[in-house]
Amino acid sequence: MTGVHPAWLPAEAFRAVNSRRVAVHGEGLLVDTVRAEVAAAESSSPELVLSLAASPGSRGVLGDDGFTLERADGVTRIVAEAPAGLLYGFFHVVRLGEAAFGADRPVEVHRPALRRRMVDHWDNVDIHPIMGQVERGYAGGSLFWERGALRADLSRVRDYARLLASCGINAVAINNVNVHRTEAHLLTDRLGEVAAIAAHLRPYGIRTHLSVNFASPIVLGGLATADPRDPAARQWWEVTTRRVYETIPDFGGYVVKADSEGQSGPFAYGRSHAEGANMLADALAPHGGVVHWRAFVYNHRQDWRDRSTDRARAAYDHFAPLDGQFRDNAILQVKHGPMDFQTREPVSPVIAAMPGTRLAVELQATQEYTGQQRHVCYLAPMWSEVLRFQPHGDGGPAVATLAGSGGLVAVSNAGDDPFWTGHPLAQANLYAFGRLAWAPDADPLTILDEWIGLTFPDATPQLRQALHAMMDDSWRTYERYTAPLGVGFMVRPGRHYGPDVDGYEYSPWGTYHFADRDGVGVDRTRATGTGYTGQYPQPWADTYESVDTCPDELLLFFHHVPYGHVLRSGSTVIQHIYDTHFAGADEAAQIRDAWSAVGHLVGSDVDDRMRERLDEQVRSAAEWRDQINTYFYRKSGVPDAKGRRIY
Amino acid sequence: MTGVHPAWLPAEAFRAVNSRRVAVHGEGLLVDTVRAEVAAAESSSPELVLSLAASPGSRGVLGDDGFTLERADGVTRIVAEAPAGLLYGFFHVVRLGEAAFGADRPVEVHRPALRRRMVDHWDNVDIHPIMGQVERGYAGGSLFWERGALRADLSRVRDYARLLASCGINAVAINNVNVHRTEAHLLTDRLGEVAAIAAHLRPYGIRTHLSVNFASPIVLGGLATADPRDPAARQWWEVTTRRVYETIPDFGGYVVKADSEGQSGPFAYGRSHAEGANMLADALAPHGGVVHWRAFVYNHRQDWRDRSTDRARAAYDHFAPLDGQFRDNAILQVKHGPMDFQTREPVSPVIAAMPGTRLAVELQATQEYTGQQRHVCYLAPMWSEVLRFQPHGDGGPAVATLAGSGGLVAVSNAGDDPFWTGHPLAQANLYAFGRLAWAPDADPLTILDEWIGLTFPDATPQLRQALHAMMDDSWRTYERYTAPLGVGFMVRPGRHYGPDVDGYEYSPWGTYHFADRDGVGVDRTRATGTGYTGQYPQPWADTYESVDTCPDELLLFFHHVPYGHVLRSGSTVIQHIYDTHFAGADEAAQIRDAWSAVGHLVGSDVDDRMRERLDEQVRSAAEWRDQINTYFYRKSGVPDAKGRRIY
């Protein structure tokens, strides 16, 4: 290992900019960052001009983050109204490379579609006995802490901030939403550590957010209650928040997981989640901060024998009635699907149900259920589907629009691994997240090529093509060899890696498939099931309700059907299971083969890591194929129509 | 909690002895122990005389541990040839209570059937990240160590020794057979800790044994190899063992788990297990020590897709060919069944296969697979069946006889819990183990009543009857609501508590049930299966081979049969599963009910603990019932003939 890899910002990616004369106009921290990036003496005859326009004619059009790009008379010009815009404009030129310095370009206006583009770190600060230092972290340890203490050398945090800014991310929540006793103290006596991290994120335009424990007035303040209606509790938050802003004037705000999986919350006091969130919002409002309040609230002590409870319903049932009750600076952070970051889920019905609430959509870049950064799984095609989904049907607003006032959040997949993300190709998910948060209608495969070009600037066409081929359909490949037709889970409990079809079937977690000798799937219809389909507006409420119109890839999420049920694709459910699992495992092997042909074209450290991960993916995919096929063969008794080996 | 409970040695149990005049004749450490026990000034007209006969006429008949009991002329006399015999005679009088002082008794000779009666502690010394301080320990922490260091106060070790001696146990292995780096050092630089423990066990006639790592010459000695043929490795063991005996002259010997579940062993050097064991035996022989070499060797990285490998075959396949090659002081320690301490297993075929080898049979008092000391499960009836089993058929030697030269070993169920064993009733397993090791043909229910009488000396008949009724059939009750018909496992992986029917089905551990929509069970026949039945001598080889003669309770261990297969009992397999699971869960509730009627008759601390455990047993038994029934209903599609609720 030769040290930390530069991910998609190797020196070669800056060749086009660095070989030219550059002028930077403007003052301030972020302008200085740009100036340091170009690392060139300012020139009187520049080929690239980056200008912060103090009061340009377009004031208000570009906003904090936007910029214009123009090329004329042999000069490429970036103009921004605010410092962050200049920074984003600079990285846009880097992305363009030589193309930024070719033919003339008329003025283009670039603005992000979503104002807040955020990554959440599930960083436990200390080592959690079960989850390790980073919960669901597959990229080594924390970027911020080491052995429970702030890292002495935070230079890598600055490198991380640079990576994030280069793809448009402007907010980071630095600690786990499960706030244990240790991390709770970041809010008060360990606030200096937060400030130190913020100081390294700030030069790249990134605001620092903190996950806090709802019971902080008790845990930290020694109060008897955290009741949102209790004046002392409210005052504690006001005073505490004021101190935070005295230390970190551009602090972003709080993230809260309340009344979920054992975390404390307003339910203990008989208060609504709106009341809980508003208490924190009120404390933050005078300082311009926001609270991200997570909608991930459900009963994780369900009895599997109770068929009347449906975890998929929970977020809507809890939050839809509260629409309009949240403060303006309270953002309801909703997971993209109703369950928990499965490989395939329908879009959460909460997103369409709360027009009077600022919503943020939460994605999971850390590959908890999608191969844990040991499998190639480029997630941008899934995210793109989510962001383009129109909950009210064609012509209605897309998810990206509905989340416009809140933003897009991803659980980060980065850690102190030399490749940042464990699997070198998993970097692409972090990059693509930032790019989609900026432009949700961007083509995920164009973003993929962009990432390949930046990360491997000197790649031969053969290497670029191989990488593209390995990654473009890798999410669907992963889907093919894991849980079928949207049914979800079937993973080893706890660890969530590798197959265990019945692993969660008799558990309290509410994640069941109900496979028996006749059929499989969860009946979530209004007619005969849990009624979950009724949480969608039309046309989806009816589309999902009927087995005839429900999309194949979500059939078992919405319906319990016999193994002989014929899909819209023409295949039976059981034959589809066999076919996709044989195909998916074959594709995993093809991904490895593709790399074998080009691995020698990159450094041996990258190649070694790639081969180790790809070997594991091929092994694991075969294990998935065989367990799933054997399980359903044993249950259904239906042989594979193609006579392939089922154990 | 009022402190540590005296288990089956409360002061009241000594009332009959302590209310009489006692004389103790003899000298030595153990005689002093007896003298201290009676705690009475010696009398010139004693009613109880305990005599160590320096050279009695019966020399050689009683041996080290035997004694005679006689009552005549108003005097009860215990005579022993060796100090331990006097100690056992004393506790025998305690057990008899007033009955020892009633009518005249002719001379009775008492001798143990098995020479070595041993408990093994799976004590990790330090906290193991997964297994905790005591592996599979359900009774709190270690009796010996605290926070990785020897306990400052070892008085409880002496109390433990007293309990063990009172039921006849005379050997203790103090640390886990999985010898991690920390415990490895007990053999050398931490030997003083072993000596300190031995000093507290010695007054009760208990010799101390130590589990050692086969790779110790490398790990501790800095050598390049632990090869049994390497002179330096052999010399390291000789020198090290000599030092052990210089420190602990009555040291018992070593316990070794080699080439098993990741532990090192002779396979690494291409040597047989006999060669490995003999190297240690040779080092121990000059000092009178023995090595217990465990036969628990199997492939724990099996591929579930490979139907040709059968874990049940492993111990026999490894060890039977080595019969006659082990030294006299090498004892092959064989688990009672071929798998791993399941609720029901056939007797291990190894026990009949090695007439030229000293064998010890290993039982598991710690209830890993039998309710983890949260369920009432009195194991003596199972152990009794094992010990009475005649591998060569009627008239042949019983297991207890075949193990006569080696002994009986139990994995201890005791820890620093105030009740010693977590569940107060689990004490009975430890007690019964000692008693069965002394007299394997004793009636386990008589032993049960003996334990009840000692533990609750002042119990009303109602309380005694309730305890008897709760415990006598509790093992079979546990069997009824867990894995059916000898198929085993179906537990949550790792923790081994609670049901998970497919939990190990696709795992590398070799523990499968092969349930599909048509049937269930493992075909281990010679005709069509793995051939395991051929490891038994006749008549069992044929008895187990045929579905017509195979005992119902082991049917699925030996055969894969359709759900409609009719058992010898007349029931179908599927109906048997339903019937036993409804019955077992009902019986668990009855056990709780029985206690509810008498709980007020004991101290509130005992009652509180009992109620907490019984509530959990009832909950868990219902969970087992429902998961097993639902699993098999979903697979078979056969409804319960009695129309009871299956979820």
From TrEMBL, chains A, B:
Xref: PANTHER family: ALPHA-GLUCURONIDASE A
Span of domain Glycosyl hydrolase family 67 catalytic: 109-420
Domain of life: Bacteria
UniProt protein name: Xylan alpha-(1->2)-glucuronosidase
UniProt keyword list: Hydrolase
InterPro entries named in the record: A-glucoronidase_C_sf, GH, Glyco_hydro_67_aGlcAse, Glyco_hydro_67_C, Glyco_hydro_67_cat, Hex-like_dom2
Ranges where the Glycosyl hydrolase family 67 C-terminal domain occurs: 421-644
